[in-house]
Amino acid sequence: MRIHRAIGVLTATALATQPVLAVASEPAPAAQAAAADNAPLKSAAIQGVDARAKLVQEMVDSIYSFAEPGFQEFQTMEYLTGILEKEGFRITKGVAGIPTAWTAEWGSGGPLIALGSDVDGLLGLSQVPGSPELKPQVEGAPGHGEGHNSGMPLVIAAALSAKQVMEKNNIPGRLMLWPGIAEELLATKAYYVRAGLFKDVDACIFTHVSSDFSTAWGDTGNNGMVSVEYTFSGKTAHSAGMPWEGRSALDAVELMDIAWNMRREHLPVTQRSHYVITEGGGQPNIVPDKASVWYYFRDQTFDSVRTLFETGNTIAKAAAMGTGTTVTQRTLGYAAPNYGNKPLAEAAWANINAVGMPQWSAADQAFARSVQQTNGRTLKPLSTEVAPLSTPETRERSLGGGSDDIGDIMWTVPTITVRFPSNIPSMIGHNVLAAIAMATPIAHKGAVQGAKAVSATVIDLMTNPQLLAEAKAFQQNVQFKDQKYDPVLTPQDQPAIDLNSEIMERMRPKLKPFYYDPKRYPTYLDQLGVKYPAG
């Protein structure tokens, strides 16, 4: 009961201390009373999450075992939508022209709250879970080296628990669940926005795996980004016998890369750009007539991302002119800079702080230490304290950094990201190290705890109109003051749904024997015969 009382007090305090916004008055006593009165509702939602802890474990382990990279999340889609359909959600598949994208909707009247998280894995990061040593489960296969197998289980548990409370108490409102498809390619959420998936949404809560339990508002430091592939076309010839008859597309790629690296010295220090050559020809004695290079251009603002994009386009055209080739370009993805909503973040953090961190066992701490020691990582125990609310005043803005296409939704409706503690500290992102814990009790407990905070925040949004009003006012008067949503996508750009299809045609038959069977095994570690903690 201590936790449940704390939720009521903290939520009421957070809402009562919201700053005055230009078009939002201070919360009225009735609104403050409503926030306090919803404590029993949030307590019931939290209990509902606890009752679904086994379901969370099964979902986390199952998605881990599917190991599907971006645009190939078919098994994940069928599995999760099957669960939600049985719970009364209306399922729409193939949204925004993306075969593995879907929405699940429930409810009527009241606010429409969207809940989402990413589901895709990464190429080449297959890993036996629970093993401190690096050990691929299927050599060369994808794996969850970012932990995206844990987010939608959290979201589903939170939604089902909030739904149960709303039904029992006749609370009007609607839920829309959605998955982040191909986030590792930063390739879909801008298309979700363009297709109007969020046009009627009042607020959105996004979740992402971490080793901490936190949320943030304002510019959160994630760069905007555009992903572009340039394809050069030339003319084949015998490389030794008649090279003058050829026009090398590979020369054009190399010239572009050299020119970009020369230009890099004269770009803002905030930019991050990187590339891979995706096609470079067949064999040395044939002048390549086709070659491609794939670039990511990142920076902090819409304008600076657009400038990098236009600079890259100019250099590509110049490389083609200099080599007697031609060039076409294909935008493969886009991500807006991230910006969290202050009233939503404050309300969510009150709930995060109230439910607290998972109760880690001695085995959990021993496993984390074993992974760190085995792989030469900094020793740092699993956290036992919630992270402070991250604000522009309390965090340093890094020069450059990663991206997340949740930014496109953040610039469309009031949105926050809730980071939940399902992984081990000191791991390397986009690496097999980040996969080791993602089907262990650490991942399960972190997702359950995150679901409690998200479910409680959904209840806040459904029962406190003042909170939603303040969230919308903050977006209009603060977030939109200096920047507006300005993606570089054109009407001709389409989702790159062909990506990763060839590798999954080869890998899926090898992965299927490793799919988790919850009817036969309590956990995925049991199915694999992995002792926890190992050693």
Your description of this structure?
It is a single chain. This protein is 39% helix and 16% strand. It has 535 residues and is an alpha+beta fold. A seven-stranded mixed sheet has the order 1-2-4-3-5-13-6. A four-stranded antiparallel sheet has the order 9-10-8-11. Strands 7-12 form a two-stranded antiparallel ribbon. It is globular and about 80 Å long. The model is unreliable at 1-35 (pLDDT under 50).
Largest sheet: 7 strands, mixed
- Rounded Rg: 24 Å
Give the integer mean of the pLDDT values: 93
- For this structure, the quaternary state is single chain
- How far from one another are the termini? 38 Å
Structural class: alpha+beta
What spatial order of strands do you see in the largest sheet? Answer: 1-2-4-3-5-13-6
Q: Compute the number of strand runs.
A: 13
- Report the portion of residues in β strands: 15-25%
What's a quick, concise take on this entry?
This protein is an alpha+beta fold.
Topology:
Blueprint: H1 2-16, H2 29-37, H3 39-51, H4 53-66, H5 74-86, E1 90-93, E2 102-108, E3 112-118, H6 151-168, E4 173-180, H7 189-194, E5 203-210, E6 214-215, E7 218-219, E8 224-233, H8 249-264, E9 272-279, E10 290-299, H9 302-323, E11 326-335, E12 339-340, H10 342-355, H11 362-374, H12 406-410, E13 415-421, H13 441-463, H14 465-477, H15 501-511, H16 524-528
Parallel strand pairs: 3-4, 3-5, 5-13
Antiparallel strand pairs: 1-2, 2-4, 6-13, 7-12, 8-10, 8-11, 9-10
Question: Which structural traits does this protein have?
Answer:
single chain; 535 residues; alpha+beta; 7-stranded mixed sheet; 16 helices; globular
